[in-house]
Automatic annotation (TrEMBL), chains A, B, C, D:
Record GO cellular component, one term: endoplasmic reticulum membrane
Name of this chain's protein: 3-hydroxy-3-methylglutaryl coenzyme A reductase
The organism of origin for this protein: Acanthoscelides obtectus
NADP in keyword set: yes
Bilayer-spanning residue ranges: none
Coiled-coil segments: none
Annotated catalysed reactions: (R)-mevalonate + 2 NADP(+) + CoA = (3S)-3-hydroxy-3-methylglutaryl-CoA + 2 NADPH + 2 H(+)
Family (UniProt): Belongs to the HMG-CoA reductase family.
CDD domains found in the cross-reference section: HMG-CoA_reductase_classI
Pfam families to which the protein is assigned, alphabetical: HMG-CoA_red
Keywords, comma-separated and alphabetical: Endoplasmic reticulum, Glycoprotein, Isoprene biosynthesis, Membrane, NADP, Oxidoreductase, Transmembrane, Transmembrane helix
UniProt topology in membrane: Multi-pass membrane protein
InterPro entries: HMG_CoA_Rdtase, HMG_CoA_Rdtase_cat_sf, HMG_CoA_Rdtase_CS, HMG_CoA_Rdtase_eu_arc, HMG_CoA_Rdtase_N, HMG_CoA_Rdtase_NAD(P)-bd_sf, HMG_CoA_Rdtase_sub-bd_dom_sf
Length: 424, 424, 424, 424
């Protein structure tokens, strides 16, 4: 009633009523009054949830929560350690398929390497002329000036470490891309703070410089871009594994030759024909997104984070074993901040042994999580590619107009069984 | 125990124990035994959830669910109707900001148009030579042959309607992109079925044709690609709205000029510099992803679905009002199938009046949902752009080394207040 | 003198003095007076050239001509006919290398197929709202309306045949891409005329439509673009050839395995890493540009025309023969109009048997020229790839600090000899 | 006869007969015997040309030369100096139009800045595993190791100066992009030499490293790529100029508002819709190509060299003046080597005062030429954009079915007059 009469702002309900859940309940009531079908919300759960960590941090105008089913794939052997991969998804067969990939990798395991680590933020500024803009480029490139900027930047956080600044000029506009390590945080807030600090320092030297925006899209956050593919963002990780011809046959139900053939025609030629930049894989995004939702990452960051090139090659003496690598240059990920602080999401990080800040080495948890994501993508790629490679062989023997089973495999119309059972 | 001794396959627990929740509970036990920190799962909820709709459809090896906080933005006026937008997210300030955008649009409302509707699937096939491959291209282009293929395709489902086939040749490889309406379903399964049927028909005419894979990445699903940007995928939607200079000042705390200026430098020049294809916007992916998770879409499909170009122009007699449009050519979305069948997700569709299949016009619900997504993106774009445009003005007056508030605005280091309160 | 005193406009000299060469001579005099080094022009030839075909057609403010050295590669066997390929270039070893490629193909020959033929022009128009813009999209998509537009379009030229119109919306902006056959002309002028005619027809139905420009860059002419790669422009051609393992060894000095290996790592993976759209080849542009200059094409159109994907595969029973294909979707080319009318350029078309309009089948000459270009690219690709593949083997045996020969091979620091002699 | 009987290899004719022209003549004879139409070559000139500089350097199997008409545009005021721009082209109206642009710039002049200078070469190498590949990345990033590599690199030429090495990993493949200043040479040969030297040094540390190719397409040479757009290649140049509203009206026959409007809809929105990376301009390639052919550059390098973003903004107190900038990040150009050594081409460099190596500052000539190219592009852009902007206004008043004049304007169907006469 007090809300209706505007005595309490709706967004502040939780504070007003002290008990967050009661606040949520009242907001649902108000919302129901405004909906055509008042009973719509009945199936949207809201009870028994600790809203204290959500409020003021993760969500506003809260009306409950969406339960996203979570399953587990694995164990996945990464650098000689076993991991059970939590995946939150509503896509049937995704976990079963990834799980099959894990089984294929079981013996040899995945090797991972972190190639670089640096979150980015690129403000756009404007000068009165290209002359001034190019002066600024020169100034920024100077080693001493960079050192001064780094001092400013690094002072804004205990974990922020400015690594590099790259400049991109467009007439009198300048995009200044700051690259920094950000400890175990995904780092967008941290780097924004440091960047803003540097901008003010820069403005002292170039008073005519206008700061148009803290983000000028050259960062690039949550949009497809060549720059993240080429110059990385967040963690750049590479993984590889070798699968014996026996396992290819017994677990993946196909041959090394068929897989390599398909990898070239689909993941190389196909993606090239489609005009893809960064999408040289079968379905990295599926695995990335499921782990991101499970572990409280920003799910919208799967756009750059799913950039991946999958390479398959013949291996071993007679070339019948399979070598697979996945290269993922821009995994934006963290183990502190954002959704990682919520209880369930935190539990999933715990499952992987990477919850919160690393005790000894800042950043080590986030880096390890990035490696796990990439290794899981390897498992996912192997399994779907195998399903596709064997698919037509199997299917061509079936009468076509049989009724499809209700179950689908990754949207591909394959029955779930063909991607391997969930059994270990 | 029976699982440990392999008498019951782990993936089949639910069936074996009859009660799905008990199955989940046992699986958690088994998993806990394998984890280093056995207590990891304590905070991962699993009780009081109806697993019957999950099993065999949305998830395997289930161990519970991830609660993603959900809030509401709006009302958002779209084509003269009010909508309350459910957004599931863990990104602080996203809903508050979108809500502010809704308020800015309140008076004039958003107009939407659906430009096209067609899910796609592009298998890769191979011929012995370019001669045969080009014969196939010619054959497919023939009107009568297309009609025959359409007959096959459309027979596979009551809702599937083949619209177009485009061919992309690469040497002796051929990528055949099927485009079809799929009713209220997002449509990947439906179109895969129809595509497979056509492939078999095609194979009868071209027995030398090898089907390498039902998906050759020219579809393109869940990977960045120019083809979806240029030739659409799923729903292609455009929205526009006009905001008076008064509202720009009072609600958005900035000016039309500053917004247009920023839109050019960031969303046009910036994205062009970054080498983006399809990412000419500020943060469409944030809104798309939050609605996708809330309404049970395939969250990994936000990659193409977030393709968006935001255009801002001066409007009105003196050019001080603001015209904004968002163009989104590839929203992959549905109101039946996949995660949409789960109770909470279904409730969110209900909130928007688009749950399940449309009673009279197949596809009308999915189309309407796509329009709502695009309109919500308009709200999100306006608000973030305004926050960025006014940001530096405001911030430059602040002493720099003040302590940052814990709250962030969309990862931009702005305090949440600056993007507008949640109050209506 | 009369020019100096402005009695005769400098650009009209030729007309004023009747004799074009004298006009050119006078212009050179005037120019020399303005140059710091008056003797600069001495080595720029201008005598003994028939300017009558240049004036008012190909060049203005003429001061002479640039002699570009021309050599010949071949014979190149294309679809069982021998061609001698004229190449105008200043890049050392390019012709020698292409010639070696021709020799490698000598026995089996190249097979070519023309997949499609259609020049494009895409004006940008603007409507007062997305509502009107989407109405226009609907109107254009209507079969009857298309027929009416086609009637208008085709009336503007005897050779123009409108094939298709595709629309690309961006808010209230609309890009309308007209695709038409244009006989033996490259066709830009012809299609511009037809397009303009259609725009006026369209404007009668949509009086509020503003025509912003006859070209809105979605054409796309002389700029990199995904649309030409995906939807073709001009001629779309595919070529293939098979080379026996013996020839790979004897002529190309390498192995099938090494070539395929390199093709994947360089032309597939490398170009994908570089963020290329359409550049999945080694040096198609070299061959395209040299033939374009020789045959009077618009050399700036090599940008789209050089789009090419080179695929190499093992062939034959033991997989030791080499299968190569080149796919070139956007060769913008003609045998009439532009520079093709000049005597020397015309002679080169004559060498290939494709000078001027085809006598019986309009367009047949231009199409044949496109096939020859693509076949020549095959020769060029094979030879450079072989040079690169064998390069490191050979070079690693050399002492490094030897003095390099002055001659380079395609800018790769290889000595010219290694790419094969010019000898036949 | 000796050739026919294979006593003298055809490619060696010039040496054998001592007199190069006689060699060319004999080769033409042989060729004529092989052609269907023996008289084809009659109009292809070959006399009175000094072949001594061509042989062994620029062309093989020479049969004469192609005269490309050359005209002059200008004077163009760049950084307060006047230049007459030599343009070799067969495209009608191109020079007239560029000339009009020069006139529009006459008063204010163009300002230019060189942002960076560095030719690139990126070999592809392969390791037995990602572990070794990432070790190599780490090794190369080390400051001391870079210094050692630089020592090797710089020793291979007096002018080569290694600036930077960037690494791009793809599984066990590594693309190592060397960036170096190369004096006044375009630099491909120079950098290839240095790169090869470094590779051998690297191989000593990583004996398991396989050198697959000196070029792995990440360079990227003569192919569209995001990497050259983002990380530059050759010279990166920015130019700007301001044109008063009076000149916009009197010379360009349009308004500042119309130009800015068109620049956004065509060069920004249009190119973004087309999926262009680097093609945010109207026709930079036309100007680049014409100057490249005139000055003996490698014309196939216009692909990256034409990358350009044109920005137009309102200027002056009332915003009615026009501000234009062109940003060209990858101009691959030189004043020594390749075709620059030929007499006519050399004369054109002389016209611009940048022939050969700069006497005092190595590289200064090539840099200056790059600035002139970019400034000329500004002139070209202004003029064509003006023609397009005014086009529809003018044309809509014409009766449509009038006969077109034979003359075209840049393929746009505009009569040549509309782009401004050649008169100064």
């Amino acid at each position: 009633m007090l809300v209706d009469t505007k005595h309490i702002p709706a967004y502040n309900l939780e504070k007003a009523v002290k008990n967050p859940e009661r606040g949520v309940k009242i907001r649902r009531k108000i919302l129901e009054n405004n909906l055509k079908k008042r009973e719509s919300l009945i199936n949207l759960p809201y009870r028994n949830y600790d809203y204290s960590k959500v409020l003021g941090a993760c969500c506003e105008n809260v009306i409950g929560y969406i339960p996203v089913p979570i399953g587990v794939a694995g164990p996945l052997l990464v650098d000689d350690k076993k991991y059970y991969i939590p995946m939150a998804t509503t896509e049937g067969c995704l976990i079963a398929s990834t799980n099959r990939g894990c089984r294929a990798i079981e013996k040899s395991g995945v090797k991972s390497r972190l190639i670089s680590d640096g979150m980015t933020r690129a403000p756009v500024v404007r000068f009165p002329s290209i002359v001034k803009a190019s002066d600024a480029v020169t100034w920024i490139k100077d080693t001493d000036n960079f050192a001064a900027l780094k001092l400013s930047f690094d002072s804004t956080s205990r974990f922020a470490k400015l690594q590099k600044i790259s400049t991109h000029i467009a007439g009198r506009y300048l995009f200044i891309r700051f690259v920094a390590e950000t400890g175990d945080a995904m780092g967008m807030n941290m780097i924004s703070k440091g960047t803003e600090c540097c901008l003010h320092a820069l403005q002292r030297h170039f008073p005519e410089m206008e700061i148009l925006s803290l983000s000028g899209n050259v960062c690039t956050d949550k949009k497809p871009s060549a720059i993240n593919w080429l110059q990385n963002r967040g963690k750049s990780v590479v993984c590889e594994c070798i699968i014996s011809s026996e396992v290819v046959a017994s677990v993946l139900k196909t041959t090394t030759k068929a897989l390599i053939d398909l990898n070239i025609s689909k993941n190389m030629v196909g993606s090239a024909i489609a005009g893809s930049i960064g999408g040289f894989n079968a379905h990295a995004a599926n695995i990335v997104t499921a782990i991101f939702i499970a572990t409280g990452q920003d799910a919208a960051q799967n756009i750059s984070s799913s950039n991946c090139m999958t390479i398959m090659e013949p291996w071993g003496q007679n070339g019948e074993d399979l070598y697979v690598s996945c290269t993922m240059p821009s995994i934006e990920i963290g183990t502190i901040g954002g959704g990682t602080i919520l209880p369930a999401q935190s539990a999933c990080l715990d499952m992987l042994g990477v919850r919160g800040p690393h005790e000894d080495i800042p950043g080590a948890n986030a880096k390890q999580l990035a490696r796990i994501v990439c290794a899981s993508v390897v498992a996912g790629e192997i399994s779907l590619m195998a399903a596709l490679a064997s698919g037509h062989l199997v299917k061509s023997h079936l009468k076509y107009n049989r009724s499809y089973s209700g179950k689908s495999a990754l949207g591909l119309g394959l029955s779930c069984g063909s991607v391997g059972s969930c059994d270990r």
